[in-house]
Write the C-alpha coordinates for this entry.
Amino acid sequence: MKKLTVAFQGELGAYSELAAREFFHADVEVAPRPVFEAVFRAVETGQCQRGIIPIENSLAGSIHQNYDLLLKHRLHIVGEIKLRIVHTLIVNPGVRPGDIRNIYSHPQALAQCDRFIRSLKRVKAVPVYDTAGAVKMIKEENIRDGAAIASAQAAADYSLKVLKSGIESDHRNYTRFLILSRKKAPRSLHARTTVVFATRNVAGALFKSLSVFALRDINLLKIESRPIQGRPWEYFFYLDFEGHADDPPCRKALDHLREIATSLRILGSYEKGREADGRVHKR
Amino acid sequence: MKKLTVAFQGELGAYSELAAREFFHADVEVAPRPVFEAVFRAVETGQCQRGIIPIENSLAGSIHQNYDLLLKHRLHIVGEIKLRIVHTLIVNPGVRPGDIRNIYSHPQALAQCDRFIRSLKRVKAVPVYDTAGAVKMIKEENIRDGAAIASAQAAADYSLKVLKSGIESDHRNYTRFLILSRKKAPRSLHARTTVVFATRNVAGALFKSLSVFALRDINLLKIESRPIQGRPWEYFFYLDFEGHADDPPCRKALDHLREIATSLRILGSYEKGREADGRVHKR
Protein backbone atom coordinates (compact mmCIF):
# COMPACT_ATOMS: atom_id res chain seq x y z
CA MET A 1 0.00 0.00 0.00
CA LYS A 2 1.26 3.44 -0.88
CA LYS A 3 2.09 5.59 2.14
CA LEU A 4 0.22 8.85 2.81
CA THR A 5 2.13 12.05 2.08
CA VAL A 6 1.82 14.77 4.73
CA ALA A 7 2.87 18.39 4.17
CA PHE A 8 4.35 20.31 7.11
CA GLN A 9 5.98 23.73 7.55
CA GLY A 10 9.71 23.79 8.26
CA GLU A 11 12.83 21.75 7.68
CA LEU A 12 13.21 18.01 8.35
CA GLY A 13 13.34 17.45 12.11
CA ALA A 14 10.81 20.23 12.81
CA TYR A 15 8.34 19.57 15.63
CA SER A 16 5.56 19.44 13.01
CA GLU A 17 7.29 16.46 11.39
CA LEU A 18 7.59 14.68 14.77
CA ALA A 19 3.88 15.29 15.36
CA ALA A 20 3.03 13.87 11.91
CA ARG A 21 5.08 10.72 12.64
CA GLU A 22 3.40 10.29 16.05
CA PHE A 23 -0.06 10.77 14.57
CA PHE A 24 0.42 8.42 11.62
CA HIS A 25 2.67 6.02 13.59
CA ALA A 26 5.67 6.68 11.32
CA ASP A 27 3.80 5.13 8.40
CA VAL A 28 3.96 8.27 6.33
CA GLU A 29 5.98 10.25 3.80
CA VAL A 30 6.68 13.81 4.93
CA ALA A 31 6.81 16.81 2.59
CA PRO A 32 8.47 19.97 3.98
CA ARG A 33 7.08 23.34 2.91
CA PRO A 34 8.57 26.80 3.57
CA VAL A 35 5.42 28.52 4.91
CA PHE A 36 2.03 27.52 6.40
CA GLU A 37 0.11 28.75 3.34
CA ALA A 38 2.08 26.25 1.19
CA VAL A 39 0.93 23.42 3.49
CA PHE A 40 -2.72 24.34 2.86
CA ARG A 41 -2.09 24.64 -0.90
CA ALA A 42 -0.30 21.25 -1.07
CA VAL A 43 -3.42 19.56 0.32
CA GLU A 44 -5.88 21.62 -1.75
CA THR A 45 -4.11 20.80 -5.00
CA GLY A 46 -3.78 17.10 -4.10
CA GLN A 47 0.06 17.18 -4.10
CA CYS A 48 -0.21 15.80 -0.54
CA GLN A 49 -3.08 13.78 0.94
CA ARG A 50 -2.76 15.42 4.36
CA GLY A 51 -1.31 18.52 5.98
CA ILE A 52 -0.31 19.14 9.59
CA ILE A 53 -0.26 22.57 11.26
CA PRO A 54 0.41 23.75 14.84
CA ILE A 55 -2.68 25.56 16.18
CA GLU A 56 -1.77 26.34 19.80
CA ASN A 57 1.04 25.97 22.30
CA SER A 58 0.22 25.52 25.98
CA LEU A 59 2.66 28.29 26.97
CA ALA A 60 2.62 30.72 24.03
CA GLY A 61 -1.02 30.46 22.96
CA SER A 62 -2.68 30.19 19.56
CA ILE A 63 -0.96 30.40 16.20
CA HIS A 64 -3.38 33.00 14.85
CA GLN A 65 -2.09 32.87 11.29
CA ASN A 66 -3.29 29.27 11.06
CA TYR A 67 -6.76 30.22 12.31
CA ASP A 68 -6.92 32.77 9.47
CA LEU A 69 -5.72 30.16 6.95
CA LEU A 70 -8.39 27.66 8.12
CA LEU A 71 -11.00 30.26 7.17
CA LYS A 72 -9.35 31.17 3.86
CA HIS A 73 -8.95 27.60 2.61
CA ARG A 74 -11.67 24.98 2.17
CA LEU A 75 -10.08 22.02 3.99
CA HIS A 76 -11.40 19.76 6.75
CA ILE A 77 -9.79 19.17 10.12
CA VAL A 78 -9.62 15.35 10.41
CA GLY A 79 -7.46 14.81 13.49
CA GLU A 80 -5.36 16.34 16.25
CA ILE A 81 -2.34 15.39 18.34
CA LYS A 82 -0.70 17.07 21.33
CA LEU A 83 3.09 16.78 21.18
CA ARG A 84 5.25 17.43 24.23
CA ILE A 85 7.94 19.88 23.15
CA VAL A 86 11.36 18.77 24.44
CA HIS A 87 14.08 21.20 23.42
CA THR A 88 17.71 20.04 23.13
CA LEU A 89 20.99 21.96 22.83
CA ILE A 90 22.72 20.86 19.63
CA VAL A 91 26.32 21.46 18.49
CA ASN A 92 28.78 20.35 15.83
CA PRO A 93 30.94 17.36 16.94
CA GLY A 94 33.83 18.46 19.16
CA VAL A 95 32.22 21.73 20.28
CA ARG A 96 32.25 21.96 24.09
CA PRO A 97 29.81 23.88 26.34
CA GLY A 98 32.47 26.50 27.12
CA ASP A 99 32.89 27.28 23.40
CA ILE A 100 29.31 28.48 22.95
CA ARG A 101 28.82 32.23 22.45
CA ASN A 102 25.62 32.26 20.33
CA ILE A 103 22.51 30.09 20.56
CA TYR A 104 20.37 30.00 17.40
CA SER A 105 16.68 29.05 17.29
CA HIS A 106 13.13 30.23 16.59
CA PRO A 107 12.27 33.17 18.90
CA GLN A 108 9.58 31.10 20.66
CA ALA A 109 12.02 28.24 21.40
CA LEU A 110 14.57 30.75 22.71
CA ALA A 111 11.90 32.26 24.98
CA GLN A 112 10.90 28.80 26.24
CA CYS A 113 14.52 28.06 27.20
CA ASP A 114 15.30 31.50 28.65
CA ARG A 115 16.13 30.16 32.12
CA PHE A 116 18.72 27.74 30.68
CA ILE A 117 20.20 30.39 28.37
CA ARG A 118 20.52 32.90 31.22
CA SER A 119 22.34 30.25 33.32
CA LEU A 120 25.17 30.21 30.74
CA LYS A 121 27.78 32.92 30.80
CA ARG A 122 28.57 35.30 27.93
CA VAL A 123 26.03 33.62 25.65
CA LYS A 124 23.72 35.50 23.26
CA ALA A 125 20.34 34.25 21.96
CA VAL A 126 20.08 34.79 18.19
CA PRO A 127 16.64 34.40 16.57
CA VAL A 128 16.34 32.52 13.27
CA TYR A 129 13.26 31.51 11.25
CA ASP A 130 13.00 27.86 12.30
CA THR A 131 14.28 25.43 14.99
CA ALA A 132 15.41 22.71 12.57
CA GLY A 133 16.63 25.45 10.22
CA ALA A 134 19.00 26.61 13.00
CA VAL A 135 20.48 23.08 13.16
CA LYS A 136 20.91 23.00 9.39
CA MET A 137 22.64 26.39 9.54
CA ILE A 138 25.19 25.55 12.27
CA LYS A 139 26.04 22.37 10.33
CA GLU A 140 26.35 23.98 6.87
CA GLU A 141 28.40 26.91 8.19
CA ASN A 142 30.33 24.59 10.57
CA ILE A 143 29.77 27.03 13.43
CA ARG A 144 32.23 26.20 16.28
CA ASP A 145 31.27 28.96 18.76
CA GLY A 146 27.51 28.41 18.62
CA ALA A 147 24.70 25.95 19.30
CA ALA A 148 21.12 25.44 18.09
CA ILE A 149 17.95 24.68 20.06
CA ALA A 150 15.68 22.16 18.33
CA SER A 151 14.33 18.60 18.63
CA ALA A 152 16.54 15.53 19.17
CA GLN A 153 15.21 14.41 15.78
CA ALA A 154 16.81 17.44 14.12
CA ALA A 155 20.17 16.57 15.76
CA ALA A 156 19.88 12.98 14.45
CA ASP A 157 18.86 14.15 10.97
CA TYR A 158 21.94 16.35 10.61
CA SER A 159 24.27 13.95 12.55
CA LEU A 160 25.03 16.58 15.16
CA LYS A 161 25.55 16.15 18.90
CA VAL A 162 22.97 16.73 21.66
CA LEU A 163 24.79 18.44 24.56
CA LYS A 164 21.73 18.63 26.81
CA SER A 165 18.09 17.58 26.55
CA GLY A 166 14.97 19.00 28.24
CA ILE A 167 16.31 22.55 28.52
CA GLU A 168 12.84 24.15 28.37
CA SER A 169 11.89 26.17 31.48
CA ASP A 170 8.48 24.48 31.84
CA HIS A 171 8.20 20.79 30.98
CA ARG A 172 4.40 21.03 30.64
CA ASN A 173 5.03 22.44 27.20
CA TYR A 174 2.69 20.96 24.58
CA THR A 175 1.81 22.01 21.06
CA ARG A 176 -1.54 20.94 19.64
CA PHE A 177 -1.42 20.10 15.92
CA LEU A 178 -4.33 19.69 13.48
CA ILE A 179 -4.43 17.26 10.57
CA LEU A 180 -5.97 18.64 7.35
CA SER A 181 -7.56 16.82 4.43
CA ARG A 182 -9.77 17.54 1.44
CA LYS A 183 -12.31 15.00 2.74
CA LYS A 184 -14.15 14.86 6.06
CA ALA A 185 -12.94 12.43 8.73
CA PRO A 186 -14.91 9.19 9.24
CA ARG A 187 -17.29 9.30 12.22
CA SER A 188 -15.37 8.93 15.50
CA LEU A 189 -16.33 7.98 19.05
CA HIS A 190 -14.65 10.67 21.14
CA ALA A 191 -15.01 13.62 18.84
CA ARG A 192 -14.10 17.26 19.06
CA THR A 193 -15.57 19.79 16.62
CA THR A 194 -14.18 23.15 15.49
CA VAL A 195 -16.47 25.80 13.98
CA VAL A 196 -16.06 29.43 12.98
CA PHE A 197 -18.89 31.97 13.07
CA ALA A 198 -19.66 35.67 13.04
CA THR A 199 -22.58 37.43 14.73
CA ARG A 200 -24.42 40.67 14.25
CA ASN A 201 -22.74 43.45 16.23
CA VAL A 202 -25.54 43.62 18.84
CA ALA A 203 -25.64 43.30 22.63
CA GLY A 204 -25.73 39.71 23.83
CA ALA A 205 -24.95 38.12 20.43
CA LEU A 206 -21.91 36.18 21.66
CA PHE A 207 -23.74 35.11 24.81
CA LYS A 208 -26.68 33.81 22.74
CA SER A 209 -24.26 31.97 20.46
CA LEU A 210 -22.69 30.15 23.39
CA SER A 211 -26.08 29.44 24.95
CA VAL A 212 -26.98 27.05 22.11
CA PHE A 213 -24.26 24.75 23.47
CA ALA A 214 -24.84 25.35 27.20
CA LEU A 215 -28.58 24.67 26.87
CA ARG A 216 -27.68 21.22 25.49
CA ASP A 217 -24.91 20.48 28.02
CA ILE A 218 -22.27 20.55 25.30
CA ASN A 219 -18.83 21.28 26.74
CA LEU A 220 -16.91 24.19 25.19
CA LEU A 221 -13.17 23.53 25.01
CA LYS A 222 -11.78 26.72 23.45
CA ILE A 223 -12.83 30.09 22.08
CA GLU A 224 -10.64 32.27 19.90
CA SER A 225 -11.48 35.60 18.23
CA ARG A 226 -9.94 37.08 15.07
CA PRO A 227 -10.69 40.42 13.43
CA ILE A 228 -12.98 40.57 10.38
CA GLN A 229 -11.10 42.32 7.56
CA GLY A 230 -12.70 45.65 6.65
CA ARG A 231 -15.10 45.65 9.64
CA PRO A 232 -13.09 47.27 12.46
CA TRP A 233 -13.85 45.91 15.98
CA GLU A 234 -15.95 42.98 14.68
CA TYR A 235 -14.72 39.43 15.07
CA PHE A 236 -14.89 35.87 13.83
CA PHE A 237 -15.20 33.41 16.71
CA TYR A 238 -13.54 30.00 16.50
CA LEU A 239 -15.15 27.56 18.88
CA ASP A 240 -14.08 24.02 19.86
CA PHE A 241 -16.63 21.79 21.58
CA GLU A 242 -16.94 18.17 22.66
CA GLY A 243 -18.93 15.95 20.33
CA HIS A 244 -19.42 15.27 16.64
CA ALA A 245 -21.31 17.72 14.40
CA ASP A 246 -23.57 14.79 13.37
CA ASP A 247 -24.48 13.82 16.97
CA PRO A 248 -28.15 14.84 17.45
CA PRO A 249 -27.55 17.38 20.28
CA CYS A 250 -24.62 18.98 18.44
CA ARG A 251 -26.56 19.04 15.17
CA LYS A 252 -29.45 20.81 16.92
CA ALA A 253 -27.07 23.25 18.62
CA LEU A 254 -25.49 24.11 15.25
CA ASP A 255 -28.95 24.56 13.66
CA HIS A 256 -29.78 26.88 16.54
CA LEU A 257 -26.48 28.75 16.06
CA ARG A 258 -27.37 29.32 12.39
CA GLU A 259 -30.45 31.29 13.58
CA ILE A 260 -28.17 33.66 15.51
CA ALA A 261 -24.95 33.82 13.49
CA THR A 262 -24.49 35.80 10.26
CA SER A 263 -22.11 33.08 9.04
CA LEU A 264 -21.19 29.60 10.29
CA ARG A 265 -18.77 27.01 8.95
CA ILE A 266 -17.92 23.61 10.42
CA LEU A 267 -14.15 23.25 10.08
CA GLY A 268 -14.22 19.61 11.15
CA SER A 269 -15.25 16.89 13.60
CA TYR A 270 -12.35 14.61 14.54
CA GLU A 271 -11.23 12.11 17.16
CA LYS A 272 -9.78 13.86 20.22
CA GLY A 273 -5.99 13.69 20.09
CA ARG A 274 -3.72 11.93 22.57
CA GLU A 275 -0.67 13.51 24.20
CA ALA A 276 2.56 12.12 22.76
CA ASP A 277 6.26 12.41 23.47
CA GLY A 278 8.22 12.82 20.26
CA ARG A 279 10.68 9.97 19.69
CA VAL A 280 13.62 10.00 17.29
CA HIS A 281 12.79 8.14 14.08
CA LYS A 282 15.35 6.60 11.77
CA ARG A 283 15.26 7.91 8.18
CA MET B 1 2.47 73.23 34.81
CA LYS B 2 4.86 70.38 34.16
CA LYS B 3 3.91 68.21 31.17
CA LEU B 4 3.06 64.54 31.61
CA THR B 5 5.73 62.08 30.46
CA VAL B 6 4.42 59.09 28.46
CA ALA B 7 6.48 55.97 27.73
CA PHE B 8 5.98 54.22 24.37
CA GLN B 9 7.69 51.37 22.53
CA GLY B 10 9.73 52.23 19.45
CA GLU B 11 11.65 55.12 17.96
CA LEU B 12 10.44 58.73 17.65
CA GLY B 13 7.76 58.87 14.93
CA ALA B 14 6.35 55.44 15.84
CA TYR B 15 2.56 55.08 15.61
CA SER B 16 2.48 54.73 19.42
CA GLU B 17 3.96 58.22 19.72
CA LEU B 18 1.34 59.63 17.29
CA ALA B 19 -1.39 57.97 19.37
CA ALA B 20 0.02 59.48 22.57
CA ARG B 21 0.06 62.97 21.01
CA GLU B 22 -3.54 62.56 19.78
CA PHE B 23 -4.72 61.31 23.17
CA PHE B 24 -3.00 64.02 25.22
CA HIS B 25 -3.50 66.72 22.53
CA ALA B 26 0.26 67.14 22.02
CA ASP B 27 0.58 68.47 25.57
CA VAL B 28 2.98 65.74 26.59
CA GLU B 29 6.63 64.66 26.78
CA VAL B 30 7.27 61.31 25.09
CA ALA B 31 9.81 58.74 26.31
CA PRO B 32 10.80 56.03 23.79
CA ARG B 33 11.52 52.54 25.15
CA PRO B 34 13.00 49.57 23.25
CA VAL B 35 10.43 46.91 24.27
CA PHE B 36 6.86 46.78 25.65
CA GLU B 37 8.02 45.42 29.03
CA ALA B 38 10.14 48.57 29.49
CA VAL B 39 7.01 50.72 28.95
CA PHE B 40 5.25 48.92 31.82
CA ARG B 41 8.36 49.23 34.04
CA ALA B 42 8.75 52.95 33.30
CA VAL B 43 5.24 53.57 34.66
CA GLU B 44 5.57 51.16 37.61
CA THR B 45 8.78 52.80 38.81
CA GLY B 46 7.37 56.31 38.36
CA GLN B 47 9.98 57.30 35.70
CA CYS B 48 6.98 58.14 33.50
CA GLN B 49 3.47 59.14 34.65
CA ARG B 50 1.77 57.27 31.79
CA GLY B 51 2.47 54.51 29.29
CA ILE B 52 0.82 53.80 25.94
CA ILE B 53 0.62 50.35 24.32
CA PRO B 54 -1.07 49.02 21.16
CA ILE B 55 -3.58 46.30 22.12
CA GLU B 56 -5.26 45.38 18.83
CA ASN B 57 -5.21 46.23 15.14
CA SER B 58 -8.42 46.05 13.13
CA LEU B 59 -6.70 43.95 10.43
CA ALA B 60 -4.03 41.93 12.27
CA GLY B 61 -5.82 41.31 15.58
CA SER B 62 -4.65 41.47 19.17
CA ILE B 63 -1.13 42.13 20.37
CA HIS B 64 -1.12 39.12 22.70
CA GLN B 65 2.16 39.99 24.40
CA ASN B 66 0.55 43.14 25.79
CA TYR B 67 -2.39 41.13 27.18
CA ASP B 68 0.16 38.97 29.03
CA LEU B 69 1.98 42.08 30.31
CA LEU B 70 -1.29 43.62 31.59
CA LEU B 71 -1.67 40.52 33.78
CA LYS B 72 1.96 40.47 34.90
CA HIS B 73 2.13 44.13 35.91
CA ARG B 74 -0.11 45.96 38.41
CA LEU B 75 -1.09 49.01 36.35
CA HIS B 76 -4.49 50.49 35.55
CA ILE B 77 -5.90 51.14 32.09
CA VAL B 78 -7.02 54.79 32.21
CA GLY B 79 -7.84 55.55 28.58
CA GLU B 80 -7.92 54.36 24.98
CA ILE B 81 -7.59 55.86 21.51
CA LYS B 82 -8.10 54.36 18.05
CA LEU B 83 -5.55 55.70 15.58
CA ARG B 84 -6.02 55.34 11.83
CA ILE B 85 -2.81 53.86 10.46
CA VAL B 86 -1.71 55.73 7.33
CA HIS B 87 1.47 54.25 5.89
CA THR B 88 3.79 56.39 3.74
CA LEU B 89 6.70 55.50 1.48
CA ILE B 90 9.78 57.38 2.69
CA VAL B 91 13.15 57.93 0.96
CA ASN B 92 16.32 59.96 1.30
CA PRO B 93 16.20 63.29 -0.60
CA GLY B 94 16.90 62.80 -4.31
CA VAL B 95 15.95 59.11 -4.41
CA ARG B 96 13.39 58.47 -7.19
CA PRO B 97 10.73 55.75 -7.35
CA GLY B 98 12.69 53.85 -10.02
CA ASP B 99 15.76 53.64 -7.75
CA ILE B 100 13.98 51.56 -5.10
CA ARG B 101 15.04 47.89 -4.85
CA ASN B 102 14.36 47.22 -1.13
CA ILE B 103 11.52 48.40 1.11
CA TYR B 104 12.22 48.26 4.84
CA SER B 105 9.58 48.15 7.58
CA HIS B 106 8.01 46.13 10.38
CA PRO B 107 6.64 42.81 8.99
CA GLN B 108 3.06 43.87 9.83
CA ALA B 109 3.40 47.18 7.96
CA LEU B 110 4.89 45.35 4.95
CA ALA B 111 1.95 42.93 4.98
CA GLN B 112 -0.54 45.81 5.19
CA CYS B 113 1.02 47.41 2.09
CA ASP B 114 1.49 44.18 0.10
CA ARG B 115 -0.73 45.32 -2.79
CA PHE B 116 1.34 48.49 -3.25
CA ILE B 117 4.66 46.63 -2.94
CA ARG B 118 3.60 43.99 -5.49
CA SER B 119 2.64 46.80 -7.93
CA LEU B 120 6.30 47.90 -8.03
CA LYS B 121 8.75 46.01 -10.18
CA ARG B 122 11.92 44.28 -8.94
CA VAL B 123 11.34 45.44 -5.36
CA LYS B 124 11.95 43.28 -2.28
CA ALA B 125 10.24 43.68 1.12
CA VAL B 126 12.81 43.51 3.93
CA PRO B 127 11.50 43.12 7.50
CA VAL B 128 13.07 45.18 10.28
CA TYR B 129 12.13 45.53 13.97
CA ASP B 130 10.23 48.82 13.84
CA THR B 131 8.57 51.19 11.29
CA ALA B 132 10.25 54.37 12.57
CA GLY B 133 13.44 52.33 13.08
CA ALA B 134 13.43 51.59 9.32
CA VAL B 135 13.35 55.35 8.61
CA LYS B 136 16.22 55.96 11.03
CA MET B 137 18.20 53.18 9.32
CA ILE B 138 17.80 54.41 5.73
CA LYS B 139 18.84 57.89 6.91
CA GLU B 140 21.87 56.82 8.98
CA GLU B 141 23.15 54.44 6.28
CA ASN B 142 22.17 56.92 3.52
CA ILE B 143 20.47 54.12 1.55
CA ARG B 144 19.92 55.27 -2.07
CA ASP B 145 18.33 52.10 -3.50
CA GLY B 146 15.75 51.58 -0.75
CA ALA B 147 12.71 53.09 0.98
CA ALA B 148 11.02 52.73 4.37
CA ILE B 149 7.34 52.36 5.22
CA ALA B 150 6.31 54.34 8.31
CA SER B 151 4.23 57.32 9.46
CA ALA B 152 4.51 60.80 7.90
CA GLN B 153 5.65 61.90 11.38
CA ALA B 154 8.69 59.63 11.11
CA ALA B 155 9.57 61.20 7.72
CA ALA B 156 9.31 64.68 9.27
CA ASP B 157 11.35 63.67 12.34
CA TYR B 158 14.26 62.46 10.21
CA SER B 159 13.83 65.20 7.51
CA LEU B 160 13.25 62.61 4.79
CA LYS B 161 10.90 62.75 1.82
CA VAL B 162 7.43 61.17 1.53
CA LEU B 163 7.10 59.72 -2.00
CA LYS B 164 3.55 58.46 -1.51
CA SER B 165 0.99 58.47 1.32
CA GLY B 166 -1.87 56.08 2.10
CA ILE B 167 -0.19 53.03 0.56
CA GLU B 168 -1.98 50.55 2.88
CA SER B 169 -4.22 48.02 1.06
CA ASP B 170 -7.19 48.65 3.36
CA HIS B 171 -7.81 52.20 4.58
CA ARG B 172 -10.04 50.97 7.42
CA ASN B 173 -6.86 50.16 9.29
CA TYR B 174 -7.02 51.22 12.94
CA THR B 175 -4.91 50.38 15.95
CA ARG B 176 -6.47 50.63 19.40
CA PHE B 177 -4.05 51.90 22.06
CA LEU B 178 -4.43 51.75 25.86
CA ILE B 179 -3.13 54.37 28.30
CA LEU B 180 -1.58 52.98 31.50
CA SER B 181 -1.11 54.61 34.88
CA ARG B 182 -0.33 53.66 38.47
CA LYS B 183 -3.61 55.25 39.58
CA LYS B 184 -7.18 54.52 38.49
CA ALA B 185 -8.89 56.87 36.03
CA PRO B 186 -11.41 59.37 37.39
CA ARG B 187 -15.06 58.31 36.91
CA SER B 188 -16.13 58.81 33.28
CA LEU B 189 -19.47 59.08 31.51
CA HIS B 190 -19.09 56.72 28.54
CA ALA B 191 -16.94 54.05 30.11
CA ARG B 192 -15.50 50.79 28.88
CA THR B 193 -14.11 48.26 31.37
CA THR B 194 -11.48 45.54 30.83
CA VAL B 195 -11.27 42.56 33.20
CA VAL B 196 -9.31 39.29 33.21
CA PHE B 197 -10.59 36.11 34.82
CA ALA B 198 -10.09 32.34 34.97
CA THR B 199 -12.74 29.69 35.57
CA ARG B 200 -12.78 26.14 36.84
CA ASN B 201 -12.25 23.72 33.96
CA VAL B 202 -15.89 22.52 33.98
CA ALA B 203 -18.65 22.38 31.39
CA GLY B 204 -20.49 25.66 30.97
CA ALA B 205 -18.07 27.74 33.07
CA LEU B 206 -17.40 30.28 30.29
CA PHE B 207 -21.11 30.46 29.42
CA LYS B 208 -21.99 31.12 33.08
CA SER B 209 -19.27 33.80 33.25
CA LEU B 210 -20.74 35.64 30.26
CA SER B 211 -24.29 35.24 31.56
CA VAL B 212 -23.57 37.60 34.50
CA PHE B 213 -23.33 40.37 31.89
CA ALA B 214 -26.12 39.22 29.57
CA LEU B 215 -28.58 38.90 32.48
CA ARG B 216 -27.96 42.59 33.24
CA ASP B 217 -28.05 43.78 29.57
CA ILE B 218 -24.37 44.73 29.71
CA ASN B 219 -22.88 44.82 26.22
CA LEU B 220 -19.72 42.72 25.68
CA LEU B 221 -17.28 44.40 23.28
CA LYS B 222 -14.42 41.89 23.07
CA ILE B 223 -13.25 38.54 24.39
CA GLU B 224 -9.69 37.28 24.20
CA SER B 225 -8.20 34.08 25.61
CA ARG B 226 -4.59 33.44 26.64
CA PRO B 227 -3.04 30.21 27.96
CA ILE B 228 -2.46 29.81 31.70
CA GLN B 229 1.23 28.96 32.24
CA GLY B 230 1.71 25.44 33.61
CA ARG B 231 -1.97 24.45 33.12
CA PRO B 232 -2.13 23.12 29.53
CA TRP B 233 -5.43 23.83 27.70
CA GLU B 234 -6.74 26.19 30.41
CA TYR B 235 -7.16 29.88 29.67
CA PHE B 236 -7.37 33.37 31.07
CA PHE B 237 -10.23 35.33 29.49
CA TYR B 238 -9.90 39.05 28.88
CA LEU B 239 -13.29 40.70 28.57
CA ASP B 240 -14.20 44.24 27.54
CA PHE B 241 -17.69 45.49 28.32
CA GLU B 242 -19.62 48.76 28.18
CA GLY B 243 -19.95 50.57 31.47
CA HIS B 244 -17.93 51.52 34.53
CA ALA B 245 -16.98 48.91 37.14
CA ASP B 246 -18.57 51.19 39.78
CA ASP B 247 -21.93 51.48 37.95
CA PRO B 248 -24.46 49.47 40.02
CA PRO B 249 -25.32 46.89 37.30
CA CYS B 250 -21.65 46.35 36.40
CA ARG B 251 -20.67 46.13 40.08
CA LYS B 252 -23.35 43.46 40.62
CA ALA B 253 -22.26 41.58 37.49
CA LEU B 254 -18.65 41.56 38.71
CA ASP B 255 -19.74 40.37 42.19
CA HIS B 256 -21.66 37.61 40.42
CA LEU B 257 -18.62 36.76 38.28
CA ARG B 258 -16.52 36.40 41.45
CA GLU B 259 -18.87 33.55 42.51
CA ILE B 260 -18.03 31.69 39.28
CA ALA B 261 -14.43 32.62 38.49
CA THR B 262 -11.36 31.24 40.26
CA SER B 263 -9.67 34.62 39.80
CA LEU B 264 -10.84 38.04 38.65
CA ARG B 265 -9.00 41.32 38.24
CA ILE B 266 -10.36 44.63 36.97
CA LEU B 267 -7.69 46.05 34.65
CA GLY B 268 -9.46 49.37 34.35
CA SER B 269 -12.59 51.43 33.62
CA TYR B 270 -11.91 54.29 31.23
CA GLU B 271 -13.64 56.70 28.87
CA LYS B 272 -14.31 55.11 25.48
CA GLY B 273 -11.71 56.32 22.98
CA ARG B 274 -12.35 58.34 19.85
CA GLU B 275 -11.02 57.48 16.40
CA ALA B 276 -8.24 59.84 15.34
CA ASP B 277 -6.16 60.50 12.25
CA GLY B 278 -2.54 61.00 13.17
CA ARG B 279 -1.27 64.47 12.22
CA VAL B 280 2.36 65.49 11.91
CA HIS B 281 3.51 67.40 14.98
CA LYS B 282 6.41 69.82 15.08
CA ARG B 283 9.17 68.95 17.58
User: Anything to note?
Assistant: Chain A touches chain B through 39 residues (CB under 8 Å). The CA atoms of residues 199 and 206 of chain A lie 7 Å apart. Chain A has a mean pLDDT of 94. DSSP finds nine helices and 16 strands in chain A.
